[in-house]
């Protein structure tokens, strides 16, 4: 599938061929739900803690005698029924993280990228090259590309100084999140108002998930088929 490419001025600057498998798939809502739920669960700290009756501070002495006072019977001040007492079946520290199968993760990524293309929320832009750390310059370039309030910018991680300039210059822009093509999160892409994809990152995604052709053996010649039949007959 062909998509229009914009330059740093926001003007059309040619086209790019994208993988239909990655950017033109049929969105699967069930996969999107599972992927977003998985990413949110993996980010949970799981540090909440409540005290059982053996962990609450307090005396184990019986507050008053069993009968004759008119009060309800009580055996300890640490009872879950009392203020400041224990918590029954309260939460304890635990690990909420779990992993999804590889094909489910890929299917969710294809679904969210395809959904963005269908809603015209995905734009491919030429490479933005900065020669210094400058949030002001980065902000000026982005104002020509988008007016959305929540933007994800996907770039290719190559370890060059230009990559560092671009990533660090965009850190102070509150409505922008810069990620490289190896660290995409379904949640960020799904809730973004617009997604900008650098040309190199779009090419990298298309190449990574392209359909691999299976290597099949060449067909046997008639002579080879005859020899194979003779060998089978001898056995």
Give a quick summary of the entry.
By secondary structure, this protein is α/β, with parallel strands linked by helices. The chain has helices at residues 20-23, 29-42, 102-118, 135-145, 161-169, 186-191, 199-208, 222-234; strands at residues 2-6, 12-17, 122-125, 151-155, 176-180, 194-198.
Keywords summarizing the entry:
235 residues; alpha/beta; Ribosomal Protein L4, Chain: A; 2 domains; six-stranded mixed β-sheet; flat
Structure description:
With 235 residues, the protein is α/β, with parallel strands linked by helices. It folds into 2 domains: 2-45 and 99-208, Ribosomal Protein L4, Chain: A, CATH 3.40.1370.10; 50-90, no CATH class. It contains 8 helices and 6 strands. It has helices spanning 20-23, 29-42, 102-118, 135-145, 161-169, 186-191, 199-208, 222-234, and strands at 2-6, 12-17, 122-125, 151-155, 176-180, 194-198. It has a 6-stranded mixed β-sheet. Strand 4, helix 5 (161-169) and strand 5 (176-180) form a beta-alpha-beta unit. The radius of gyration is 30 Å and the shape is flat.
């Amino acid at each position: 599938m062909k998509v229009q490419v914009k330059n740093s001025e926001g003007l059309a600057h040619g086209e790019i061929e994208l993988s239909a498998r990655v950017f033109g798939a049929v969105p699967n809502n069930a996969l999107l739900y599972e992927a977003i739920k998985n990413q949110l669960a993996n980010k949970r700290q799981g540090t909440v803690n409540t005290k059982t009756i053996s962990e609450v501070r307090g005396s184990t002495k019986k507050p008053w005698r069993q009968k004759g006072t008119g009060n309800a019977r009580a055996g300890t001040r640490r009872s879950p029924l009392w203020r400041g007492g224990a918590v029954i079946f309260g939460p304890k520290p635990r690990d909420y993280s779990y992993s999804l199968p590889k094909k489910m993760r890929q299917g969710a990524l294809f679904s969210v990228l395809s959904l963005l293309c269908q809603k015209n929320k995905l734009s491919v832009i030429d490479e933005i090259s900065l020669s210094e750390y400058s949030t002001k310059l980065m902000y000026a370039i982005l104002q020509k590309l988008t007016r959305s309030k929540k933007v994800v910018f996907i770039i290719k991680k190559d370890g060059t100084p230009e990559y560092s300039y671009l990533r660090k210059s965009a850190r102070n822009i509150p409505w922008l999140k810069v990620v490289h093509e190896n660290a995409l999160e379904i949640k960020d892409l799904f809730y973004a108002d617009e997604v900008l994809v650098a040309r190199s990152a779009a090419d990298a995604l298309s190449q990574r998930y392209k359909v691999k052709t299976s290597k099949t053996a060449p067909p046997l010649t008639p002579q080879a088929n005859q020899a194979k039949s003779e060998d089978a007959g001898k056995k």
